[in-house]
Amino acid sequence: MYMAPTVITTIDDTATLDLGRLLELTLAGREPEQKEQLTAEGVRLQWLGEGALEVTPAPGRDAGLDLVLSAGVHGCELVPIRLLDDLIRAIGRGEIRPRARLLLLFCNPPAMRQGVRRIGQDLNRLFCGKHAGIVSDEARRAARLEAWAAEFFRESGRRRWHYDLHSAMRASKLPQFAVCPWMPDREASSESLMRLRHAAVDAVLLQEKPSATFSAHTATRHGAEAFTLEMAEAPDGTWPECLDDFLQAARQWIEVDSPAQTKPARPLRTFRLAREIIKRSEAFVLRLPADIENFTAFPSGTLLAEDEGGVRWIAEEPDAHILFPLADVAIGERAGLIVVPRD
Question: What residues are annotated to the active site?
Fold first, then answer.
């Protein structure tokens, strides 16, 4: 299984405004001397707090879009952290000229500094109010991120998008994919799915029940077109071409520009969740190879996992695929998803 480096390195870039070095500030745990800066074109960068930057287009350039880009919910997922850092630096250098209002977030600074998935609780299970009544650093951070999102989405009548960038930390049959949170009385629009295609996304899992992820919070609480994006990783540690395609698409989102038709949009496969594999005890065992790829298909009858009391998860659905297999989760949390094609 591909394991990314455990240390985040940053680039010395003297042409970038200090606030464009948000990742450096976050990893160092320090506040900038200037909380607000302007680019030469008049784009305003405002530091909100640790790991949080708000960007306002130059006067007369606002196209009516509020866009949240977040990464680092899990501190060991370095590819999305690097992608977001690249975009922020390009804004700080004036290479990207935003026409969207932006909220740019490195979500879990303590885990990022240690290069680990989590230090205490899984931050991506504490949104949609799940942090209420919990006393922990992660619960406080989830509440802080929700508050920033609420303030950012304060104006009505504007388009709202949120892309929460992750990496699955393993190879995938479909290298780059998205998870669309369940939304009451609303499905993902054809326009939002087309944006995924132009961003080199190969598949989307359409959830059919509530969850407590960051993208689920912005979708259900603020009506945003929100997705969790699982970015591609190459087994040999190289930089897959589809990541450059994503960066180009993200730049077009920020600049509110139509996609450049340099190549055809990728086909987009759609899946739905059939069942969750839940870890019930410390006796839980995944009966899968450690390096199994996401979206691996199984013939009916394949044993996937076992737990105490004779509990067994067996592939029963026609054309069942595995997604996010991970035994090292807390008791009561999911250790994998069984998904089936919906297209």
Answer: 230
